[in-house]
Structures are given as C-alpha cells and as structure tokens.
Specification:
The structure is a single chain. The chain is of the alpha+beta class. It folds into two domains: 2-232, P-loop containing nucleotide triphosphate hydrolases (Rossmann fold), CATH 3.40.50.300; 236-361, RNA polymerase II/Efflux pump adaptor protein, barrel-sandwich hybrid domain (OB fold (Dihydrolipoamide Acetyltransferase, E2P), Beta Barrel). 23% of the residues lie in helices and 37% in strands. It has eight helices and 20 strands. It has helices at 42-50, 92-102, 107-120, 136-148, 166-183, 194-200, 218-223, 228-233, and strands spanning 2-13, 16-27, 31-35, 57-62, 65-66, 77-81, 154-158, 186-191, 203-208, 211-216, 238-247, 251-256, 260-265, 276-281, 287-289, 299-310, 314-320, 326-332, 347-352, 357-361. A six-stranded mixed β-sheet has the order 6-7-8-3-9-10, with helices on both faces. A five-stranded antiparallel β-sheet has the order 13-12-11-14-20. It has a five-stranded antiparallel β-sheet with strand order 15-19-16-17-18, with no helix packed on it. Helix 2 (92-102) runs parallel beside helix 4 (136-148).
C-alpha cells in the first residue's frame, strides 16, 4: 500500500525548472532513495514533501490526503539533515526525548520509549553526554533516533552521511538499514552517492534535470539501465555504439562497436532494422582468456591490453579492440598475492554474452 504519492509535481525558480512533472508512489516500510547529481531536483523534491518548499502544481498525498498546503510542523514526518541539528546544550537523552516532551508525553512513557530508542542506536552508555563529546557517527545516530522516537509516518533524510569519512559511512549504512527495519518507518533518502543508494535502498528513483530517468530496485537500476544517462551515472559501464542489423519477432541482432555481433531476445523493447543506440555492458560482465573460446551465442574477439588499475579485490583492465575501441573489464583478484592476470600489450581474447548487457535505443 502506498504511503506517499507524488502526482505530477512541478517546481520552478525564476526561469529554472527544478522539478518537472515528477510522479512517484512510495510503499509503506520502504527504504526509498532519490539519487542524482547536484542540481537534479532531488533535494527540492524532498523539501516539498517536508513542507519547506511549495510545488507550483501537482499533489503530495500522505495516506491518501493531500498535504501540499499543510505547514511543516503539522505534517506527520521528520527530516534529518547532514548538519545533525542537535541541541548543543542538551544531553543525548534530552535531545532524543525532545519531540516527546513537545508532544506532552507522560514521564513514564518518555522513559520507556527512551530506553528502547537508546538501545536501538546502541548509545545507552552515552546517554548523559553532550553532542560535542560524541563522534560524527554517534551524533548522526542521535539525530536519527530523535527523528524516529515518536514513530513518524515518514523519515526524510537529506544526504545525512555526507559529512562522515568513508569507513564511518559504510558502518552507518548497516546502522541505517537496521534502524529502518526495526522501526518499520518509511525512509525517503536523498544522496548523490551511487554505491550508497545501491547498498541501502528497496527502490531507487534516478533523477536528472528535474525528471525521473528510471525507477526500480537496485538490481534493476544497475543491471538493466533503461537510458544512457542511468547506465553512465551508476557505477562503471562500457557504453558502446550499436546498430540493429537483423530483426525478427523473437530476436534481433546488433553490431556493437563495428566489430562485435550479438543476438538478443526481442522481449522488452521494440526495435527496427537500422535503429541505432548503445550496448551497455558492465566491466565485470566481460570475460578475458589467453585463448579463444567458442560458446553458443557468445561473441569472442581478440584484444590488446592497454593498461590496468589495481583496486585490491579486483583489477580493472583496459582492452583495445582491433578497430581502436577501448573496453573496460574488471577481473576479481581471488587468488593469493594476485594483482594482475595480464600485462600491458598482451594479446588476449574477450568473451561477451549478449545477455550480460542491454541495448539502449536512441
């Protein structure tokens, strides 16, 4: 059941359209992420849900009721910012209890909920400390605990981890998912970090220039991008020019990078002979060998190693095809002390399964 529905939301600032006809439906209990670069409209959209901005047109439905004209303090939701916004003169306990005191809960009920909430964010031993005595990750947990303590219908999070270092962000990913699952509160999360969105989300809306380019699960967004922008924005991706050279009711054949022929099932998109586009192929989906391999439906071509980059758990290779096109290929370093399979200028054979990528029409 949808807890939040955005219907054809438009927001303009002077002659700039920040959000252009966005419609979304967010389910109860989801960890939903708005993902995109700076200026794509994701934060403006979140601010309209929170009530800090008003849409020029469209509806914002919470549990089926339009809240577009409600002031922020009357909306049954909370917002967590990257700045934490904790009260410096209050202890952890009092910061978290603040919404309950404002709502005039009884002392007994506040004490019971505080005990539960401090335990959920693993801060029982820090309850009497002040914000300046905490680490960045601990302060962020306090801010989230305060926002969840009165069980809002929605928790809006605007790039809440951007001020933390990389290792602490990874730790907080686990904490956020755990807190969301324990509380059952619907999270709407804004980030520009693709890996963060993939790790945390039930579903992701990828935004670009005020519109939603694609909406889907992390697996769908990563493995089955629908547009050039999504394929290029999410992680590393080979985007190779391709053209349809054969077409029939059950399958079609494309020529990729002018030298690779692949046959794909004619299921999701309608193609026509001569139609051009791109073949999106993730680096880890390419296989490389010393000798040619012959597998049904798999294309095998000769290539030369241009260079490689060591990433610890994997090595990213750049292969040059006979016509000069460069492909990136990620190979796992799963053997002891292994940093590379191939050296620069080695001649190798690469295998491409057509089902490992997808054809994006122009």
């Amino acid at each position: 059941m949808a807890i939040l529905e955005l219907k054809n939301i438009v927001k303009q600032f002077a002659d700039y359209t920040a959000v252009n006809g966005v419609s979304l439906s967010i389910e109860q209990g989801e960890f939903f992420t708005l993902l995109g670069p700076s200026g794509c409209g994701k934060t403006t959209l979140l601010r309209m849900v929170a009530g800090f901005e008003s849409p020029d047109s469209g509806q914002i439905l919470l549990d089926g009721k339009d809240i577009k004209d409600l002031p922020p303090e009357q909306r049954p939701l909370h917002t967590v910012f990257q700045s934490y916004a904790l009260f410096p003169h209050l202890t952890v306990r009092d910061n978290i209890a603040f919404p309950l005191k404002m709502a005039k809960w009884s002392k007994a009920d506040i004490a019971e909920r505080l005990k539960e909430q401090l335990s959920s964010v693993q801060l029982e031993q820090f309850a009497e400390r002040y914000p300046h005595e905490l680490s960045g990750g601990q302060r962020q947990r306090v801010a989230i605990a305060r926002s969840l303590v009165d069980r809002p219908k929605l928790l809006l999070l605007d790039e809440p981890l951007s001020a933390l270092d990389a290792r602490l962000r990874e730790h907080m990913h686990v904490e956020l998912v755990r807190m969301q699952e324990q509380s059952g509160v619907t999270f709407v999360y804004v980030t520009h970090d693709q890996s963060e969105a993939l790790a945390l989300s039930s579903r992701i809306a990828v935004m670009n220039h005020g519109i939603v380019e694609q909406l889907g699960t992390p697996r769908e967004i990563y493995s089955q991008p629908k547009t050039y922008y999504v394929a290029d924005f999410i992680g590393k991706c080979n985007l190779l020019p391709a053209v349809v050279i054969e077409s029939n009711p059950s399958s079609y054949k494309i020529k990729v990078a002018e030298c690779i022929e692949l046959v794909l099932p004619n299921e999701e998109i309608e193609v026509t002979l001569g139609q051009s586009g791109w073949f999106a192929l993730r680096p880890e989906k390419i296989k490389a060998h010393w000798d040619p391999r012959h597998e049904d439906g798999v294309s095998c071509v000769k290539a030369r190693v241009k260079g490689y980059y060591y990433y610890g758990d994997g090595t990213l290779y750049e292969f040059i095809l006979p016509n000069g096109v460069v492909l990136q290929c990620m190979l796992s370093n799963n053997r002891p002390n292994q940093a590379s399979f191939f050296q620069e200028n080695d001649e190798v054979f690469i295998s491409i399964n057509p089902l490992a990528g997808n054809f994006l029409v122009k």
